[in-house]
Amino acid sequence: MDEKLIDYLSLLSRTELTEEEKKIYGSQMSDIFLWVEQIKDLNTGEDDVLSYKKEESRLRQDIPKPFENRKAIIDNFTAREFDFLKVKKVIEG
Amino acid sequence: METAIKSIEAVKSGKKSVSQITKDFLKKIKEEDSKINSFLEVFEESALKKAEEIDAKISSGKTPGELAGAVFAIKDNMLYEGKEITCASKILKGHISSYNSTAVSKLLEKDAVIIGRTNMDEFAMGSSCENSAYLKTANPIDTQFVPGGSSGGSAAAVKAGFCHIAYGSDTGGSIRQPASFCGIWGMKPTYGRVSRYGLVAFASSLDQIGPMANSWEDLLLGYKAVKGYDEKDSTSIKDITEKGEFNSVKGLKIAVIKNLEKLEGLESDLAETSSNLLSKISSMGAKIIEVDFKSFKYALPAYYILASSEASSNLARFDGFRYGLSLEAPNLTKAYMKNRGEGFGSEVKRRILLGTHSLSSGYYDAYYLKAQKVRNFIRKELEEVFSQADLILTPSSPSAAFKFGEKINDPLSMYLSDIFTIPVNLAGICALSFPFGTRKKDNMPYGFQLMASHMKDEFLIKTAGEISCAL
Description:
The complex is a heterodimer. Helix content of chain A is about 45%, strand content about 5%. By secondary structure, chain A is mostly helical. Chain A has a domain of about 45 residues: Histone, subunit A (Orthogonal Bundle). Chain A has a two-stranded antiparallel ribbon with strand order 1-2. The mean pLDDT of chain A is about 85. At the A-B interface, helix 1, helix 2, helix 3 and helix 4 of A face helix 9, helix 10, helix 11 and helix 12 of B.
Protein backbone atom coordinates (compact mmCIF):
# COMPACT_ATOMS: atom_id res chain seq x y z
CA MET A 1 0.00 0.00 0.00
CA ASP A 2 1.80 3.15 -1.16
CA GLU A 3 2.04 6.47 0.63
CA LYS A 4 -0.33 8.11 -1.84
CA LEU A 5 -3.13 5.71 -0.86
CA ILE A 6 -2.39 6.12 2.85
CA ASP A 7 -2.56 9.92 2.38
CA TYR A 8 -5.90 9.54 0.61
CA LEU A 9 -7.32 7.33 3.38
CA SER A 10 -6.00 9.71 6.01
CA LEU A 11 -7.87 12.57 4.32
CA LEU A 12 -11.02 10.51 3.70
CA SER A 13 -11.17 9.51 7.36
CA ARG A 14 -10.12 12.99 8.53
CA THR A 15 -7.35 11.47 10.63
CA GLU A 16 -3.90 13.05 10.58
CA LEU A 17 -0.93 10.69 10.48
CA THR A 18 2.72 11.39 11.20
CA GLU A 19 5.34 10.47 8.58
CA GLU A 20 6.41 7.54 10.75
CA GLU A 21 2.80 6.31 11.08
CA LYS A 22 2.35 6.51 7.31
CA LYS A 23 5.33 4.21 6.78
CA ILE A 24 4.24 1.71 9.45
CA TYR A 25 0.57 1.65 8.40
CA GLY A 26 1.51 1.34 4.73
CA SER A 27 3.41 -1.86 5.31
CA GLN A 28 1.05 -3.29 7.95
CA MET A 29 -2.05 -2.62 5.87
CA SER A 30 -0.50 -4.25 2.84
CA ASP A 31 0.01 -7.39 4.95
CA ILE A 32 -3.51 -7.19 6.38
CA PHE A 33 -5.18 -6.79 2.97
CA LEU A 34 -3.09 -9.59 1.52
CA TRP A 35 -4.35 -11.79 4.34
CA VAL A 36 -7.94 -10.56 3.93
CA GLU A 37 -7.90 -11.48 0.21
CA GLN A 38 -8.46 -15.12 1.24
CA ILE A 39 -12.19 -14.43 1.77
CA LYS A 40 -12.48 -14.41 -2.02
CA ASP A 41 -11.71 -18.16 -1.99
CA LEU A 42 -14.95 -19.01 -0.20
CA ASN A 43 -17.73 -19.66 -2.67
CA THR A 44 -20.62 -17.92 -0.96
CA GLY A 45 -23.04 -18.10 -3.88
CA GLU A 46 -24.99 -15.15 -5.15
CA ASP A 47 -27.53 -14.75 -2.33
CA ASP A 48 -29.04 -11.42 -1.55
CA VAL A 49 -26.49 -10.44 1.02
CA LEU A 50 -28.90 -8.42 3.11
CA SER A 51 -31.78 -10.95 3.19
CA TYR A 52 -30.87 -12.18 6.68
CA LYS A 53 -30.75 -8.67 8.04
CA LYS A 54 -34.10 -7.72 6.55
CA GLU A 55 -35.84 -10.42 8.59
CA GLU A 56 -34.31 -9.08 11.77
CA SER A 57 -34.65 -5.36 11.17
CA ARG A 58 -37.36 -3.50 13.00
CA LEU A 59 -38.13 -0.07 11.73
CA ARG A 60 -39.58 2.71 13.84
CA GLN A 61 -40.77 6.23 13.27
CA ASP A 62 -38.06 8.83 13.70
CA ILE A 63 -39.79 10.83 16.39
CA PRO A 64 -37.66 13.06 18.62
CA LYS A 65 -38.10 12.63 22.36
CA PRO A 66 -37.09 15.16 25.00
CA PHE A 67 -33.87 14.37 26.87
CA GLU A 68 -34.20 15.40 30.49
CA ASN A 69 -30.57 15.87 31.42
CA ARG A 70 -29.89 18.79 29.07
CA LYS A 71 -27.43 20.40 31.48
CA ALA A 72 -25.17 17.34 31.47
CA ILE A 73 -24.82 17.59 27.69
CA ILE A 74 -24.10 21.31 27.81
CA ASP A 75 -21.52 20.76 30.57
CA ASN A 76 -19.63 18.46 28.21
CA PHE A 77 -19.17 21.17 25.56
CA THR A 78 -15.48 21.65 24.99
CA ALA A 79 -15.99 25.42 24.67
CA ARG A 80 -19.15 27.32 25.47
CA GLU A 81 -20.66 30.74 25.97
CA PHE A 82 -23.80 30.67 28.10
CA ASP A 83 -25.72 27.65 26.77
CA PHE A 84 -24.26 27.84 23.31
CA LEU A 85 -21.70 25.39 21.99
CA LYS A 86 -18.77 27.54 21.00
CA VAL A 87 -17.03 26.27 17.91
CA LYS A 88 -13.48 27.30 17.23
CA LYS A 89 -12.72 29.40 14.19
CA VAL A 90 -12.88 27.00 11.26
CA ILE A 91 -12.89 29.32 8.27
CA GLU A 92 -9.59 30.52 6.96
CA GLY A 93 -8.96 34.16 6.16
CA MET B 1 -13.28 -14.68 47.90
CA GLU B 2 -16.98 -15.04 48.61
CA THR B 3 -19.22 -15.26 45.54
CA ALA B 4 -21.84 -12.62 44.79
CA ILE B 5 -24.54 -15.16 45.57
CA LYS B 6 -23.06 -15.85 49.02
CA SER B 7 -22.70 -12.12 49.75
CA ILE B 8 -26.32 -11.51 48.74
CA GLU B 9 -27.38 -14.33 51.10
CA ALA B 10 -25.21 -12.86 53.88
CA VAL B 11 -26.94 -9.51 53.46
CA LYS B 12 -30.38 -11.13 53.38
CA SER B 13 -29.71 -13.06 56.58
CA GLY B 14 -28.31 -9.98 58.31
CA LYS B 15 -24.81 -11.45 58.70
CA LYS B 16 -23.21 -8.68 56.68
CA SER B 17 -23.99 -5.15 55.65
CA VAL B 18 -23.61 -3.92 52.06
CA SER B 19 -21.34 -1.16 53.40
CA GLN B 20 -18.99 -3.69 54.97
CA ILE B 21 -18.80 -5.75 51.79
CA THR B 22 -18.12 -2.61 49.75
CA LYS B 23 -15.45 -1.37 52.19
CA ASP B 24 -13.69 -4.75 52.04
CA PHE B 25 -13.45 -4.51 48.25
CA LEU B 26 -12.30 -0.88 48.39
CA LYS B 27 -9.58 -1.81 50.86
CA LYS B 28 -8.36 -4.63 48.65
CA ILE B 29 -8.32 -2.35 45.59
CA LYS B 30 -6.32 0.30 47.51
CA GLU B 31 -3.81 -2.25 48.68
CA GLU B 32 -3.35 -4.26 45.52
CA ASP B 33 -4.50 -2.51 42.34
CA SER B 34 -1.32 -0.43 42.01
CA LYS B 35 0.33 -3.69 40.82
CA ILE B 36 -2.52 -4.70 38.50
CA ASN B 37 -3.99 -1.40 37.22
CA SER B 38 -7.38 -2.88 36.51
CA PHE B 39 -9.35 0.29 37.31
CA LEU B 40 -9.24 3.60 35.49
CA GLU B 41 -11.37 5.06 38.28
CA VAL B 42 -12.66 3.72 41.57
CA PHE B 43 -16.04 5.15 42.54
CA GLU B 44 -15.29 5.12 46.25
CA GLU B 45 -17.67 7.88 47.26
CA SER B 46 -20.70 6.87 45.19
CA ALA B 47 -20.21 3.15 45.91
CA LEU B 48 -20.19 3.77 49.66
CA LYS B 49 -23.14 6.14 49.37
CA LYS B 50 -25.15 3.55 47.45
CA ALA B 51 -24.17 0.84 49.98
CA GLU B 52 -25.30 3.03 52.89
CA GLU B 53 -28.62 3.75 51.14
CA ILE B 54 -29.23 0.02 50.69
CA ASP B 55 -28.31 -0.68 54.34
CA ALA B 56 -30.67 2.10 55.45
CA LYS B 57 -33.43 0.57 53.34
CA ILE B 58 -32.86 -2.79 55.05
CA SER B 59 -32.71 -1.20 58.52
CA SER B 60 -36.06 0.48 57.96
CA GLY B 61 -37.65 -2.90 57.22
CA LYS B 62 -37.92 -2.48 53.44
CA THR B 63 -36.96 -5.26 51.05
CA PRO B 64 -33.84 -4.31 49.11
CA GLY B 65 -33.28 -5.07 45.44
CA GLU B 66 -32.24 -8.56 44.41
CA LEU B 67 -28.57 -7.58 43.95
CA ALA B 68 -28.09 -6.04 47.43
CA GLY B 69 -24.70 -7.34 48.58
CA ALA B 70 -23.21 -7.81 45.12
CA VAL B 71 -20.43 -5.48 43.95
CA PHE B 72 -19.85 -4.85 40.24
CA ALA B 73 -17.31 -3.15 38.00
CA ILE B 74 -18.06 -1.80 34.52
CA LYS B 75 -15.89 -1.46 31.47
CA ASP B 76 -15.00 2.12 30.59
CA ASN B 77 -17.33 2.10 27.56
CA MET B 78 -20.59 1.79 29.53
CA LEU B 79 -22.28 5.05 30.42
CA TYR B 80 -22.84 5.74 34.13
CA GLU B 81 -24.46 9.14 34.65
CA GLY B 82 -22.18 11.73 36.23
CA LYS B 83 -19.05 9.61 35.84
CA GLU B 84 -16.20 10.15 33.41
CA ILE B 85 -16.15 7.76 30.44
CA THR B 86 -13.14 7.60 28.14
CA CYS B 87 -13.13 4.20 26.39
CA ALA B 88 -9.46 4.36 27.44
CA SER B 89 -8.93 6.99 24.73
CA LYS B 90 -7.34 10.43 24.92
CA ILE B 91 -10.04 11.75 22.61
CA LEU B 92 -12.70 11.30 25.30
CA LYS B 93 -10.66 12.46 28.28
CA GLY B 94 -12.85 14.42 30.66
CA HIS B 95 -16.15 13.42 29.07
CA ILE B 96 -18.90 12.91 31.63
CA SER B 97 -21.77 10.50 30.95
CA SER B 98 -25.03 12.40 30.67
CA TYR B 99 -27.22 9.32 31.15
CA ASN B 100 -27.07 5.73 32.31
CA SER B 101 -26.65 2.83 29.93
CA THR B 102 -29.58 0.42 30.27
CA ALA B 103 -27.28 -2.19 31.83
CA VAL B 104 -26.14 0.29 34.50
CA SER B 105 -29.75 1.39 35.15
CA LYS B 106 -30.78 -2.21 35.68
CA LEU B 107 -27.93 -2.80 38.13
CA LEU B 108 -28.69 0.31 40.16
CA GLU B 109 -32.44 -0.40 40.22
CA LYS B 110 -31.67 -3.83 41.68
CA ASP B 111 -29.47 -2.31 44.39
CA ALA B 112 -26.11 -3.33 43.03
CA VAL B 113 -23.04 -1.36 44.04
CA ILE B 114 -20.86 -0.23 41.13
CA ILE B 115 -17.32 0.13 42.40
CA GLY B 116 -15.46 1.50 39.40
CA ARG B 117 -14.72 1.61 35.69
CA THR B 118 -12.13 -0.74 34.32
CA ASN B 119 -9.30 -0.36 31.84
CA MET B 120 -9.65 -1.63 28.27
CA ASP B 121 -8.06 -1.49 24.86
CA GLU B 122 -8.94 1.87 23.35
CA PHE B 123 -12.50 1.77 21.96
CA ALA B 124 -12.45 -2.01 22.62
CA MET B 125 -9.93 -2.59 19.83
CA GLY B 126 -7.27 -5.03 20.93
CA SER B 127 -6.56 -8.34 22.59
CA SER B 128 -4.10 -7.44 25.34
CA CYS B 129 -5.24 -4.18 27.00
CA GLU B 130 -1.93 -2.68 25.79
CA ASN B 131 -3.85 -0.24 23.58
CA SER B 132 -5.20 1.78 26.52
CA ALA B 133 -4.08 5.42 26.41
CA TYR B 134 -3.85 5.46 30.20
CA LEU B 135 -2.69 2.26 31.87
CA LYS B 136 -1.17 -1.13 31.21
CA THR B 137 -3.24 -3.71 33.05
CA ALA B 138 -1.34 -6.76 34.22
CA ASN B 139 -2.58 -10.31 34.55
CA PRO B 140 -3.18 -10.90 38.29
CA ILE B 141 -1.89 -14.48 38.02
CA ASP B 142 1.54 -13.29 36.88
CA THR B 143 2.13 -9.62 36.18
CA GLN B 144 4.61 -10.32 33.34
CA PHE B 145 1.63 -11.39 31.24
CA VAL B 146 -1.17 -9.40 29.63
CA PRO B 147 -4.72 -9.93 30.91
CA GLY B 148 -6.10 -10.20 27.38
CA GLY B 149 -8.50 -7.73 25.83
CA SER B 150 -10.25 -5.70 25.13
CA SER B 151 -12.07 -6.16 28.48
CA GLY B 152 -8.73 -6.85 30.22
CA GLY B 153 -9.39 -4.50 33.14
CA SER B 154 -12.69 -6.22 33.92
CA ALA B 155 -11.11 -9.69 33.74
CA ALA B 156 -8.21 -8.62 35.97
CA ALA B 157 -10.52 -6.96 38.50
CA VAL B 158 -12.58 -10.15 38.84
CA LYS B 159 -9.53 -12.41 39.06
CA ALA B 160 -7.84 -10.16 41.62
CA GLY B 161 -10.99 -10.17 43.78
CA PHE B 162 -11.69 -6.44 43.44
CA CYS B 163 -15.39 -7.02 42.73
CA HIS B 164 -17.77 -9.96 42.44
CA ILE B 165 -18.74 -9.50 38.80
CA ALA B 166 -17.47 -7.17 36.08
CA TYR B 167 -19.04 -6.34 32.75
CA GLY B 168 -17.20 -6.22 29.50
CA SER B 169 -18.23 -5.81 25.90
CA ASP B 170 -17.52 -8.45 23.28
CA THR B 171 -17.29 -7.56 19.58
CA GLY B 172 -15.02 -10.40 18.50
CA GLY B 173 -14.01 -12.12 21.73
CA SER B 174 -13.28 -9.19 24.05
CA ILE B 175 -14.96 -10.88 27.02
CA ARG B 176 -14.08 -14.53 26.37
CA GLN B 177 -10.41 -14.12 25.47
CA PRO B 178 -9.45 -12.06 28.60
CA ALA B 179 -11.59 -14.42 30.73
CA SER B 180 -9.53 -17.26 29.31
CA PHE B 181 -6.20 -15.46 29.92
CA CYS B 182 -7.14 -14.65 33.54
CA GLY B 183 -8.65 -18.04 34.40
CA ILE B 184 -12.21 -16.81 35.01
CA TRP B 185 -15.65 -17.16 33.38
CA GLY B 186 -16.81 -14.75 30.70
CA MET B 187 -19.86 -14.73 28.49
CA LYS B 188 -21.05 -13.09 25.28
CA PRO B 189 -24.84 -13.28 25.32
CA THR B 190 -26.96 -13.73 22.19
CA TYR B 191 -26.90 -10.53 20.12
CA GLY B 192 -29.87 -8.42 21.23
CA ARG B 193 -30.29 -10.10 24.63
CA VAL B 194 -28.58 -7.29 26.55
CA SER B 195 -29.35 -3.73 25.53
CA ARG B 196 -26.54 -1.80 23.86
CA TYR B 197 -28.15 1.52 24.83
CA GLY B 198 -25.40 3.54 26.47
CA LEU B 199 -22.60 1.27 25.31
CA VAL B 200 -20.17 3.31 23.21
CA ALA B 201 -20.38 1.70 19.78
CA PHE B 202 -17.41 0.01 18.14
CA ALA B 203 -19.13 -2.27 15.60
CA SER B 204 -22.86 -2.07 16.24
CA SER B 205 -23.85 -5.31 14.51
CA LEU B 206 -21.39 -7.29 16.65
CA ASP B 207 -21.08 -5.52 20.04
CA GLN B 208 -22.66 -7.13 23.07
CA ILE B 209 -22.36 -6.47 26.82
CA GLY B 210 -21.72 -9.53 28.97
CA PRO B 211 -20.66 -10.62 32.46
CA MET B 212 -17.32 -11.91 33.79
CA ALA B 213 -17.10 -13.77 37.10
CA ASN B 214 -15.18 -16.31 39.15
CA SER B 215 -17.96 -18.93 39.08
CA TRP B 216 -20.72 -20.05 36.75
CA GLU B 217 -23.35 -19.18 39.36
CA ASP B 218 -22.17 -15.57 39.47
CA LEU B 219 -21.96 -15.51 35.67
CA LEU B 220 -25.63 -16.52 35.52
CA LEU B 221 -26.49 -13.85 38.09
CA GLY B 222 -24.57 -11.25 36.09
CA TYR B 223 -26.31 -12.25 32.87
CA LYS B 224 -29.81 -12.26 34.37
CA ALA B 225 -29.19 -8.86 36.00
CA VAL B 226 -28.81 -7.04 32.68
CA LYS B 227 -30.72 -9.08 30.09
CA GLY B 228 -34.07 -8.12 28.65
CA TYR B 229 -35.87 -6.20 25.96
CA ASP B 230 -35.18 -2.49 25.70
CA GLU B 231 -37.11 -0.20 23.39
CA LYS B 232 -34.14 2.17 23.39
CA ASP B 233 -32.08 -0.39 21.44
CA SER B 234 -33.70 -1.20 18.10
CA THR B 235 -31.71 -4.45 17.88
CA SER B 236 -32.90 -5.64 21.30
CA ILE B 237 -34.83 -8.95 21.13
CA LYS B 238 -38.52 -8.61 22.00
CA ASP B 239 -39.02 -12.29 22.80
CA ILE B 240 -37.72 -12.65 26.35
CA THR B 241 -38.18 -16.43 26.64
CA GLU B 242 -35.05 -18.54 27.05
CA LYS B 243 -34.76 -21.46 24.66
CA GLY B 244 -33.61 -24.93 25.63
CA GLU B 245 -34.16 -26.44 29.03
CA PHE B 246 -31.15 -27.81 30.87
CA ASN B 247 -31.53 -31.23 32.46
CA SER B 248 -28.20 -32.98 32.34
CA VAL B 249 -24.97 -33.14 30.38
CA LYS B 250 -25.78 -36.81 29.85
CA GLY B 251 -27.22 -37.28 26.39
CA LEU B 252 -26.19 -33.86 25.07
CA LYS B 253 -24.50 -33.70 21.70
CA ILE B 254 -21.36 -31.59 21.75
CA ALA B 255 -19.73 -30.74 18.43
CA VAL B 256 -16.03 -30.24 17.91
CA ILE B 257 -14.50 -28.87 14.72
CA LYS B 258 -12.68 -31.44 12.62
CA ASN B 259 -8.89 -31.05 12.37
CA LEU B 260 -8.79 -28.08 14.72
CA GLU B 261 -5.76 -29.49 16.50
CA LYS B 262 -3.81 -28.95 13.26
CA LEU B 263 -4.44 -25.20 13.35
CA GLU B 264 -1.23 -23.20 12.98
CA GLY B 265 -0.33 -21.40 16.19
CA LEU B 266 -2.28 -23.69 18.50
CA GLU B 267 -0.15 -24.43 21.57
CA SER B 268 0.69 -28.11 21.91
CA ASP B 269 -0.25 -28.13 25.62
CA LEU B 270 -3.62 -26.72 24.66
CA ALA B 271 -4.24 -29.48 22.11
CA GLU B 272 -3.43 -32.01 24.82
CA THR B 273 -5.62 -30.25 27.41
CA SER B 274 -8.40 -30.16 24.85
CA SER B 275 -8.42 -33.92 24.31
CA ASN B 276 -8.26 -34.43 28.07
CA LEU B 277 -11.34 -32.21 28.44
CA LEU B 278 -13.18 -34.05 25.69
CA SER B 279 -12.67 -37.42 27.34
CA LYS B 280 -13.94 -36.03 30.64
CA ILE B 281 -17.04 -34.60 29.00
CA SER B 282 -17.55 -37.83 27.15
CA SER B 283 -17.35 -39.78 30.40
CA MET B 284 -20.16 -37.59 31.73
CA GLY B 285 -22.41 -39.13 29.10
CA ALA B 286 -22.29 -36.43 26.43
CA LYS B 287 -21.88 -37.53 22.84
CA ILE B 288 -18.96 -35.84 21.07
CA ILE B 289 -19.45 -35.40 17.35
CA GLU B 290 -16.94 -34.08 14.83
CA VAL B 291 -18.27 -31.54 12.36
CA ASP B 292 -16.98 -29.78 9.28
CA PHE B 293 -16.88 -26.01 9.58
CA LYS B 294 -15.32 -25.04 6.31
CA SER B 295 -15.98 -21.30 6.61
CA PHE B 296 -14.22 -21.18 10.01
CA LYS B 297 -10.92 -19.86 8.66
CA TYR B 298 -12.68 -17.08 6.75
CA ALA B 299 -14.36 -15.66 9.85
CA LEU B 300 -11.35 -13.71 11.08
CA PRO B 301 -10.54 -11.84 7.84
CA ALA B 302 -14.25 -11.17 7.21
CA TYR B 303 -14.57 -9.84 10.73
CA TYR B 304 -11.71 -7.39 10.33
CA ILE B 305 -13.36 -5.95 7.23
CA LEU B 306 -16.81 -5.68 8.81
CA ALA B 307 -15.81 -4.53 12.29
CA SER B 308 -13.35 -1.95 10.93
CA SER B 309 -15.91 -0.67 8.43
CA GLU B 310 -18.49 -0.19 11.18
CA ALA B 311 -15.86 1.37 13.43
CA SER B 312 -14.78 3.86 10.79
CA SER B 313 -18.40 5.00 10.61
CA ASN B 314 -19.18 4.89 14.36
CA LEU B 315 -16.03 6.74 15.34
CA ALA B 316 -16.73 9.57 12.89
CA ARG B 317 -18.58 11.32 15.73
CA PHE B 318 -15.30 11.98 17.54
CA ASP B 319 -14.52 15.19 15.71
CA GLY B 320 -12.90 17.32 18.42
CA PHE B 321 -15.95 19.54 18.84
CA ARG B 322 -18.55 17.56 20.69
CA TYR B 323 -16.45 15.49 23.07
CA GLY B 324 -13.26 15.63 25.10
CA LEU B 325 -10.13 16.65 23.26
CA SER B 326 -10.39 19.89 21.30
CA LEU B 327 -7.34 21.35 19.59
CA GLU B 328 -6.98 24.57 17.61
CA ALA B 329 -6.51 24.39 13.82
CA PRO B 330 -6.77 26.91 10.96
CA ASN B 331 -9.79 25.34 9.24
CA LEU B 332 -12.47 22.71 9.70
CA THR B 333 -10.79 19.83 7.86
CA LYS B 334 -7.50 20.45 9.64
CA ALA B 335 -9.33 20.63 12.98
CA TYR B 336 -10.91 17.22 12.39
CA MET B 337 -7.62 15.75 11.24
CA LYS B 338 -5.60 17.18 14.11
CA ASN B 339 -8.03 16.17 16.84
CA ARG B 340 -8.47 12.65 15.51
CA GLY B 341 -4.77 12.29 14.71
CA GLU B 342 -3.78 13.32 18.25
CA GLY B 343 -6.76 11.81 20.05
CA PHE B 344 -6.79 8.27 18.69
CA GLY B 345 -4.13 5.69 19.41
CA SER B 346 -2.36 3.59 16.79
CA GLU B 347 -4.67 0.54 16.73
CA VAL B 348 -7.78 2.72 16.43
CA LYS B 349 -6.24 4.69 13.58
CA ARG B 350 -5.18 1.49 11.84
CA ARG B 351 -8.72 0.15 11.99
CA ILE B 352 -10.25 3.43 10.85
CA LEU B 353 -7.96 3.35 7.81
CA LEU B 354 -8.79 -0.32 7.22
CA GLY B 355 -12.53 0.37 7.39
CA THR B 356 -12.30 3.50 5.28
CA HIS B 357 -10.44 1.56 2.59
CA SER B 358 -12.93 -1.34 2.67
CA LEU B 359 -15.86 1.02 2.23
CA SER B 360 -14.27 3.27 -0.36
CA SER B 361 -15.37 3.44 -3.96
CA GLY B 362 -13.87 0.65 -6.04
CA TYR B 363 -13.18 -1.62 -3.07
CA TYR B 364 -16.64 -1.91 -1.44
CA ASP B 365 -17.78 -4.94 -3.47
CA ALA B 366 -14.51 -6.81 -3.15
CA TYR B 367 -14.15 -6.31 0.58
CA TYR B 368 -17.24 -5.15 2.49
CA LEU B 369 -19.89 -6.86 0.40
CA LYS B 370 -17.89 -10.07 0.09
CA ALA B 371 -17.28 -10.07 3.88
CA GLN B 372 -21.07 -9.73 4.42
CA LYS B 373 -21.58 -12.76 2.19
CA VAL B 374 -19.01 -14.68 4.19
CA ARG B 375 -20.83 -13.65 7.36
CA ASN B 376 -24.13 -15.02 6.03
CA PHE B 377 -22.40 -18.21 4.97
CA ILE B 378 -20.95 -18.65 8.48
CA ARG B 379 -24.36 -18.08 10.07
CA LYS B 380 -25.94 -20.69 7.84
CA GLU B 381 -23.14 -23.16 8.46
CA LEU B 382 -23.44 -22.72 12.21
CA GLU B 383 -27.23 -23.15 12.01
CA GLU B 384 -26.57 -26.44 10.27
CA VAL B 385 -24.18 -27.56 13.02
CA PHE B 386 -26.77 -26.67 15.65
CA SER B 387 -29.32 -28.84 13.85
CA GLN B 388 -27.08 -31.79 14.75
CA ALA B 389 -25.59 -30.68 18.08
CA ASP B 390 -26.61 -28.83 21.26
CA LEU B 391 -23.29 -27.09 21.76
CA ILE B 392 -19.96 -26.49 20.05
CA LEU B 393 -16.72 -26.74 22.03
CA THR B 394 -13.45 -25.03 21.05
CA PRO B 395 -10.54 -23.50 22.95
CA SER B 396 -11.26 -19.81 23.70
CA SER B 397 -7.94 -18.70 22.25
CA PRO B 398 -5.09 -20.58 20.51
CA SER B 399 -2.75 -19.90 23.44
CA ALA B 400 -2.62 -18.97 27.11
CA ALA B 401 -1.67 -15.36 27.98
CA PHE B 402 1.36 -13.87 26.25
CA LYS B 403 3.86 -11.40 27.69
CA PHE B 404 3.76 -7.59 27.35
CA GLY B 405 5.20 -6.39 24.06
CA GLU B 406 5.18 -9.86 22.49
CA LYS B 407 2.55 -9.11 19.85
CA ILE B 408 1.98 -5.36 19.99
CA ASN B 409 4.00 -4.62 16.82
CA ASP B 410 2.48 -7.44 14.83
CA PRO B 411 -1.24 -6.72 14.40
CA LEU B 412 -1.96 -9.88 12.41
CA SER B 413 -0.54 -12.11 15.11
CA MET B 414 -2.57 -10.20 17.73
CA TYR B 415 -5.77 -10.59 15.64
CA LEU B 416 -5.25 -14.37 15.54
CA SER B 417 -5.86 -14.67 19.28
CA ASP B 418 -9.58 -14.17 18.50
CA ILE B 419 -9.81 -16.86 15.85
CA PHE B 420 -12.18 -19.09 17.86
CA THR B 421 -14.38 -16.39 19.29
CA ILE B 422 -15.15 -14.34 16.18
CA PRO B 423 -17.57 -16.72 14.40
CA VAL B 424 -19.88 -16.35 17.43
CA ASN B 425 -20.18 -12.58 16.98
CA LEU B 426 -20.64 -12.90 13.22
CA ALA B 427 -23.53 -15.33 13.78
CA GLY B 428 -24.99 -13.43 16.75
CA ILE B 429 -25.17 -16.58 18.90
CA CYS B 430 -24.15 -16.94 22.55
CA ALA B 431 -20.92 -18.39 23.93
CA LEU B 432 -18.89 -18.45 27.11
CA SER B 433 -15.35 -19.20 28.20
CA PHE B 434 -14.61 -21.32 31.26
CA PRO B 435 -11.21 -22.13 32.77
CA PHE B 436 -9.71 -25.58 32.38
CA GLY B 437 -6.07 -26.68 32.50
CA THR B 438 -2.85 -24.71 32.35
CA ARG B 439 0.23 -24.29 30.16
CA LYS B 440 2.88 -26.53 31.69
CA LYS B 441 5.89 -24.20 31.58
CA ASP B 442 4.33 -21.31 33.51
CA ASN B 443 0.95 -22.49 34.81
CA MET B 444 -0.96 -19.81 32.93
CA PRO B 445 -4.59 -20.86 32.51
CA TYR B 446 -6.38 -22.10 29.43
CA GLY B 447 -9.99 -21.30 28.67
CA PHE B 448 -12.49 -23.30 26.65
CA GLN B 449 -15.40 -21.92 24.74
CA LEU B 450 -18.86 -23.41 24.56
CA MET B 451 -21.23 -21.99 21.93
CA ALA B 452 -25.00 -22.41 21.80
CA SER B 453 -27.56 -21.18 19.30
CA HIS B 454 -29.61 -18.01 19.68
CA MET B 455 -31.41 -17.38 22.97
CA LYS B 456 -30.10 -20.48 24.70
CA ASP B 457 -27.99 -18.37 27.03
CA GLU B 458 -29.15 -19.81 30.36
CA PHE B 459 -29.02 -23.34 28.99
CA LEU B 460 -25.43 -22.62 27.97
CA ILE B 461 -24.35 -21.32 31.39
CA LYS B 462 -26.04 -24.15 33.30
CA THR B 463 -24.56 -26.83 31.05
CA ALA B 464 -21.08 -25.34 31.36
CA GLY B 465 -21.66 -25.11 35.11
CA GLU B 466 -22.43 -28.80 35.40
CA ILE B 467 -19.44 -29.70 33.21
CA SER B 468 -17.08 -27.58 35.33
CA CYS B 469 -18.39 -29.07 38.57
CA ALA B 470 -17.52 -32.54 37.33
CA LEU B 471 -14.00 -31.67 36.13
